[in-house]
Design a protein that fits this description.
Length: 95
């Protein structure tokens, strides 16, 4: 007979109970970690999708880099100014 799949709320309650107990061996530690991941996934459900989070992270990183370049903290590197004698082949790519 096939087992019924638990609802997400039921699984969440079981995971909360499992996380309260400290694991004693490697197998229990893996189950403990899986339960923690399911709990974090359950809590973040409906907040924000991965794609939108990645998009906003890229935008904020672009803004931060623009500010750093504007302040002169990071110098931009112009590869055209590097002489060919300094460029060496290393493996499959050239620097």
């Amino acid at each position: 007979m096939k087992k019924k799949k638990l609802s997400s709320k039921q699984q969440y309650q079981l995971d909360v109970e499992l996380v309260k107990i400290k694991p004693t061996n490697r197998t229990e530690a893996k189950a403990h970690l899986a339960a923690q991941l399911r709990i974090s996934k359950f809590k973040s459900k409906g907040r924000r999708g991965f794609n939108s989070a990645a998009k906003s992270a890229k935008e904020s990183l672009d803004i931060a880099n623009a500010i750093r370049f504007g302040e002169g903290v990071v110098e931009s590197v112009d590869t055209a100014r590097i002489p060919d004698s300094n460029k060496r082949w290393r493996g499959r790519t050239a620097d």
